[in-house]
Amino acid sequence: MGLNDTPSAERVHIGFFGRRNAGKSSLVNAVTGQELSVVSPVEGTTTDPVRKAMELLPLGPVVIIDTPGFDDEGELGELRVRRTRQILARADCAVLVVDAGRGLTPADRQLVELFRGRQLPYLVAWNKSDLVPAPDTGEDGVAVSAVTGQGVEELKERLARLVKTEDRTGALVGDLLRTGDLAVLVVPIDKSAPKGRLILPQQQVIRDALEAGAAPVVVRETEYAAVLPSLGRPPALVVTDSQVFGLVARQTPAEIPLTSFSILMARYKGFLETAVRGAAALDRLKDGDRVLIAEGCTHHRQCEDIGTVKLPRWIREHAGADIAFDTCSGRDFPEDLSPYRLVLHCGACMLHQREVQYRRRCALDAGVPFTNYGTAIAHLHGILRRSLGPFPALAALVPGG
Questions:
Q1: DSSP 8-state assignment for residue 381
Q2: Rg (CA), the chain
Q3: 192-205: per-residue pLDDT in tens?
Q4: Using one digit for the tens of pLDDT, what is the confidence trace for 258-288?
Q5: Given strand 324-328, what is the order of strands in its sheet?
Q6: 348-354: average pLDDT
Q7: DSSP string, 82-97
Q8: Which of 207, 271, 355, 362 is the most buried (most CB within 10 A)?
């Protein structure tokens, strides 16, 4: 996979923040070397976050995000500020663009407090330093000029040192396999499968297994039972799509470790323990309770869609109760989670890790359990403990044998 093919969820997200007319858009254009954002002397020209996936040397694959002014006013201005706040949940690091002639304003200071509160690494870019001398920039500041290019290369180099990309994600599957191991991946090809390709988690698991020196064997659930004994030796791991979890579990000998792509993604994104603990809420649902089903991407829903059809049916059957379900997708995620008794999230393969953690924290701060598709489906089928076999410490959290 080339840098241009790197999924957005795997890229470093850099947000440019600041008050109106501080020169955010001009500096974004200078940093990217492209006319990414519309530039105008009129305050509030940037009305929505503008995103660009690109390669930014020396950092590598990134997503640059230009945001509306944080001091915007009026009813529409409040909506724009809210969208700017949402970008904080997705950014790996922030650039606070300050007009060097005006210095730090109350809006700038508020942003700094938000960065610090979220433990978000940041730099202060003192823009328009070609017109007035920048103040003492300190360790977190850089004197720049979007017009002359002064300090732009230093800003990029400082950003590269600010973000530790190797710490952004957890392990996927490579640490569960050794050189020469067989790993069987069960991949249904049905109406919901994308035409001519595999979905991102399947691609990532295959790549990670290959990098570990293992041999991934990819098979549909309809051929799995026949292929398994033909391998000549037991696989070190079976990974299945969650939708056929029950079938694959019945066909897999107990001594063979079994898990799902969704459970691996929860581990990769850093919230598997939360998901395991949250799955217990499925046993406590009662008539009138509401469950939020959240997906990180938007797609055309089929008649047997997992999020809107299968999971609600399975949950109602499990609870024996009339449960109400709300859904959200893409970047939409409710700010108020208090009406819900459970947040059930997709595997989050298309979401940036920081945003997934933000959603998890929102739920836990509201006292709402948080889990994901694969963990919930394994629980509903009574196989969660077995599905966590590769992770003994987490398997011990599940009651029963």
A1: T
A2: 24
A3: 656 778 888 999 99
A4: 999 999 999 998 899 999 999 999 999 999 9
A5: 324-328, 290-294, 342-345, 370-372
A6: 79
A7: HHHHHHHTT-SEEEEE
A8: 271
